Amino acid sequence: xxxxxxxxxxxxxxxxxxxxxxxxxxxxxxxxxxxxxxxxxxxxxxxxxxxxxxxxxxxxxxxxxxxxxxxxxxxxxxxxxxxxxxxxxxxxxxxxxxxxxxxxxxxxxxxxxxxxxxxxxxxxxxxxxxxxxxxxxxxxxxxxxxxxxxxxxxxxxxxxxxxxxxxxxxxxxxxxxxxxxxxxxxxxxxxxxxxxxxxxxxxxxxxxxxxxxxxxxxxxxxxxxxxxxxxxxxxxxxxxxxxxxxxxxxxxxxxxxxxxxxxxxxxxxxxxxxxxxxxxxxxxxxxxxxxxxxxxxxxxxxxxxxxxxxxxxxxxxxxxxxxxxxxxxxxxxxxxxxxxxxxxxxxxxxxxxxxxxxxxxx
Length: 362
What we know:
- By secondary structure, the protein is α+β, with helices and mostly antiparallel strands.
- The protein folds into two domains: 2-221, Hypothetical protein, domain 2 (Endonuclease III, domain 1, Orthogonal Bundle), CATH 1.10.340.30; 237-359, Nucleoside Triphosphate Pyrophosphohydrolase (Alpha-Beta Complex), CATH 3.90.79.
- 46% of the residues lie in helices and 14% in strands.
- It has 15 helices and seven strands.
- Strands 1, 2, 3, 4, 5, 6 and 7 form a seven-stranded mixed beta sheet that branches.
- It is globular and about 75 Å long.
């Protein structure tokens, strides 16, 4: 595995550093998000907030704008809360003790293990989707990884393997006390993740180029497509929302989502969920704007997914100026330049892009 990783590891920007802060940011961004998506976000973040102290001091608006488009915004708020804990309790230095890392807001067992093993080369196990898939197939673990007993078994196996990788460091140190030891724990854990991402993929795994194919239970027994034995995903649910671009001269009305809800603190156009595909659009406008414009026109339809929900957002605009009284008190009338500085929920950011395209056609 270590030899394979040395030859095949992708050149990812956070692999060029041992800075635990940089690695921490990458691990939080990579939750629920593909590597190719994360790279530009990580690079922009590290330019804007290169240290823990800079993150701790940043305004909520700045961190949300930097995170805009990554989704799951609780992650970024926890990231800043944890940075402030590090400043207050660890003098701004990222802690090296696993238990101290695990105690930080927004950091679970996997993330703590990833940081401690990758940044500090500690023999701490990791278990994400890629690692679960590799271990389940290689070792023939038939249970559902979400079941407690199977999950515990996988954690124990991951720990056994990384400790074995780490124990070889001690042997090498006894042979050569002058040269620095290789980062075996760091590279071994990364090799598990990399193998799952590049070779041991969910569908059509590339067993012919796998470095552990000869030792793999699933390859031997033709079970690669069947493992890991995950329970069926919950059925998808369709939801429909309507949103409104209400104008007042060169400005439009936007609302900031309150604390304690999904996408808290982000901005959006006034909107409401309707219970059927033929929802009463004028009545929906009356509920969120306090008035039903007579010249509502469909601007666009945005389709997106959040977990098991398949969401359709129909966006209507009006050219008339009216005295709207939005139901939510956190509304502001802003021009295009002001809107660009705000962090929008992903679907509403697409609405803003449509508005700008309409104003600046090629």
